[in-house]
Amino acid sequence: MLRGKTLTLGDLARHIKGDLRSAGDASILVWGVGPLDASGSDTITYAISPANCRIADAGSCAAVLVSSAHAEHVTKPVILVEDPKSAWIECLKLFTPRLTVPKGISPQASIDPGAMIHPDAVVMQNAVVMQGVTIGPGTVVWPGVFLGEETVVGSDCVIHPNVVIREGCRLGDRVIIHAGAVIGADGFGYRQDSDGTHEKIPQIGNVVIENDVEIGANATIDRSTCGSTVIGAGTKIDNLVQIAHNVVIGPKNILAAQVGIAGSTVTGERCIFAGQAGVADHCRIGDRVVIGPQAGVQIRRVKPDTVYFGTPAIEMGKMQKILPLFHRLPELLAARSTESGES
């Protein structure tokens, strides 16, 4: 584990506006945050229930972030806070180590003379920046990144190693793209001829990624056939997600690992797609919809504020009635066979 700064418990409590209690020695040094059941003696953890408190108390952590409602269940030093998880997140930010990032443009990077790179941007070795690329201030381009012709990258973005951003794509500000992601590959578009040959349909559009989007490792977002594939502001995309051509993902969506969204589907704002969920092409997903894990959505219009589970995906209210019967099908069929035999 990388080490960040070291603080005393007293300083940490003041930073997160907590109250150090219960035998808490303010001079104890801590340098990081640990998991509930495996924290080291110089790290802290948090607890949000009596059961959590018992696990934390049995471990070797230096102190526990806890609310006053559960503090009595901990004999270790505690820092009383209103919301232990929020305080824990603040500690994660505080203890995050700063990575060594060089300044300026590496002489080992391949930069086309026609590229426009802000003086405050960083481009590391073995990155390739093609003609007409624009990179804004504060953006960091890690080794092995490829930026295709006429790509625009906004300010304060982080493009991690071996990311590929193809020609003409546009990124807003504060976008984070993790290693191995591919933005702007050709959409999966073919026309089948009478003899079964698949003729490629040119994919001449681009991908537009709005502000404050984060894209996980090895995710793929295809360019549109024409127009733009769009990822709305504030959306967070996990590893290994596939978003097809001409999809429009609304603002502040969450897409967990291995989600697949087929072509020309449009989602509303604040939708959640759980792991391995899939959505068919040309669907319209309303605002604040939740699609459960491994659900398969084939409904052309999904109403706002609904929750869907299963394959094919069914609204949660109906699914709650179906599932008990589904698990009883063998005995129900057996009973029906018996009744038929008796009649």
The CATH topology label of the largest domain is UDP N-Acetylglucosamine Acyltransferase, domain 1
Could you name the CATH class of the largest domain?
Answer: Mainly Beta
Q: Give the CATH architecture of the largest domain.
A: 3 Solenoid
Instruction: Compute the number of helices.
Output: 5
Largest sheet: 11 strands, mixed
Helical content class: 10-25%
Structural class: alpha/beta
The Rg value, from CA coordinates, equals 26 Å
Q: Rough shape?
A: flat
- How much of the residues is beta strand, in percent? 25-35%
Domains (count) = 2
Notes on the protein architecture:
This protein is α/β, with parallel strands linked by helices. The protein has two domains: 7-95, 3-Layer(aba) Sandwich (Udp-n-acetylmuramoylalanyl-d-glutamate--2,6- Diaminopimelate Ligase, Chain: A, domain 1); 110-318, Hexapeptide repeat proteins (UDP N-Acetylglucosamine Acyltransferase, domain 1), CATH 2.160.10.10. Helix content is 16%, strand content 28%. It has five helices and 40 strands. An eleven-stranded mixed beta sheet has the order 10-13-16-19-24-27-30-33-36-39-40. A hairpin with a 4-residue loop joins strand 39 (307-309) and strand 40. The radius of gyration is 26 Å and the shape is flat.
